[in-house]
Write a structure and sequence with these properties.
Chain B: InterPro entries: CO_DH_flav_C, CO_DH_flav_C_dom_sf, Diverse_Substr_Oxidored, FAD-bd_PCMH, FAD-bd_PCMH-like_sf, FAD-bd_PCMH_sub1, FAD-bd_PCMH_sub2, Mopterin_DH_FAD-bd. The complex is a heterodimer of chains A (169) and B (290). With 169 residues, chain A is of the alpha+beta class. Chain A has six helices and five strands. With 290 residues, chain B is an alpha+beta fold. Classes of the chains: A alpha+beta (169), B alpha+beta (290).
């Protein structure tokens, strides 16, 4: 083994906050954040589909913004504040209005794209509490549903938006 | 783990970045937003031996709007430009065009400098930089130089930036008086790579006649193509649908797009004409309003 490969396989220690909980893990620099979450932290709610930034299944919130976790190296998430789909429900186990919406409006079929859809929609509703159907479609355009269940997904986001507005009043 | 192994450096100052570039040269790739680089690494189309992650370098992020020039730090992320009210007022094309980049998840991480040096001729930023006559400032440990789009873009995914240089900032002119901007692209799906992209800027004189205009098309060559022959014809004329239809018709013979699985050469040429007409008209309409 050359000196260079020895250097590159050296593990780096990172500390990150995921769903309010702090973790310290040793990762190889080439390990993607999606793999750190799933394989090191066993948070398998974040799905990996295409692994090159097209499908959106691995979307998480990183420092308050929606990010594709397959397009960030784990080492880059050192000191970051991350929310995954596991962080959506409340401490006492009550589902997030978006999760309820997906349940009520048949927003999921096989469920593979659902975590990414939920995280993307979550960011949309934080910034736009009353989106039009067009705005919902635009927001989720970076998330592919191979069951083509978009109608139900848009209904679900609309449902959740209404629910959240009513709660806020 | 999809990417091949690499050495990872996370310098904390620009000087450190530059000395690492001096040390590793062609072996090193800069990691800014990573939204083009990491997909290439995940598919092993790129296997850089060394990655220099500049995300911890201070002073490379920010938007400064002056009287005549907008200076955007190379590490500024797309969403910051997208949500900047100052950019919307001072450079409407930039505000519009940024929204067309990928999806919100991509715009969260992707950077202005990274997108420009990636030099995809169908990407929004290279086309906007060319249409607006912007500039890029690159630095090395020895030198700092400014490059126009014509000096910067060489061909597909290739620039004249040396392996020991990095983009420090990107400069766009503040929109002039009685000027309108427009950008449009044709994509197969929202947020996808554009098949053809067109951007135009039109300035009217006090009588409402066209004083100057620029038109730039992406997707027909290895670099964004400026069509000065088309816009020179417009000077001194009153903007109208007929004028733009007539002046854009010869574009079919000026551009040489290639065909691929998505569209034929003829279809791409038609798109060039249609989008050019549309952006020129839209830019002229905008110019009338200001």
């Amino acid at each position: 083994m050359t000196e260079k490969t020895a250097e590159s396989s050296r593990l780096k220690t990172i500390t990150l906050k995921v769903n309010q909980k702090e973790y310290t893990v040793d990762v190889e620099p080439r390990m993607l954040l999606s793999d750190v979450l799933r394989d090191e932290l066993r948070l398998t709610g974040t799905h990996v589909g295409c692994e090159h930034g097209v499908c959106g299944a691995c979307t998480i919130m990183m420092d308050g913004r929606p990010v594709r976790s397959c397009l960030v190296f784990g080492v880059q998430a050192d000191q970051a504040d991350i929310v995954t789909v596991e962080g959506l429900e409340s401490q006492d186990g009550e589902l997030h209005p978006l999760q309820n919406g997906f349940w009520e409006k048949h927003g999921l079929q096989c469920g593979f794209c659902t975590p990414g859809m939920l995280m993307t929609a979550c960011h949309l509703l934080e910034h736009n509490p009353d989106p039009s159907r067009e705005e919902i479609r635009e927001a989720i355009s970076g998330n592919l549903c191979r069951c083509t269940g978009y109608q139900g997904i848009v209904d679900a986001v609309e449902y959740a938006a209404k629910e959240m507005r009513e709660r806020a009043e | 783990m999809k990417p091949a192994a690499f050495d990872y450096y996370r310098p904390e100052t620009l000087d450190e970045v530059l000395s690492l570039l001096d040390e590793f040269g062609y072996d090193a790739k800069i990691l800014a937003g990573g939204q083009s680089l990491i997909p290439m690494m995940n598919m092993r189309l790129a296997r850089p031996p060394v990655l220099i992650d500049i995300n911890g370098v201070p002073g490379m992020t920010g938007i400064e709007v002056g009287d005549s020039e907008i200076v955007i730090g190379g590490l500024t992320r797309h969403y910051m430009v997208e949500h900047s009210a100052e950019i919307r007022d001072s450079c409407p094309m930039l505000a519009e065009g940024i929204k067309l980049i990928g999806h919100s998840q991509i715009r969260s991480r992707g950077t202005i400098g990274g997108s420009i040096v990636h030099a995809d001729p169908t990407a929004e930023l290279p086309v906007m930089l060319t249409a607006l006559g912007g500039k890029v400032t690159v630095v090395s440990s020895e030198d700092e130089r400014e490059l126009t789009p014509e000096e910067l873009f060489l061909t597909y995914m290739t620039t004249t930036i040396e392996p020991n240089e990095i983009v420090k900032s990107v400069h766009f002119p503040v929109i002039a008086e009685r000027t309108g901007h427009a950008i449009e692209e044709f994509t197969l799906r929202s947020g996808d790579f554009a098949i053809i992209i067109a951007a135009a800027s039109v300035t009217l004189d006090e009588e409402g006649l066209i004083e100057s205009a620029t038109l730039c098309i992406g997707g027909v060559d290895g670099v964004p193509v400026k069509l000065d022959d088309v816009t020179d014809e417009l000077i001194g004329q009153a903007p109208s649908d007929e004028l733009f239809a007539e002046s854009c018709a010869p574009i079919v013979d000026m551009v040489e797009p290639e065909k691929d699985i998505h569209a034929s050469v003829e279809y791409r040429k038609d798109l060039c004409v249609a989008l050019s007409r549309r952006v020129l008209k839209k830019a002229a309409d905008e110019a009338k309003l200001v």
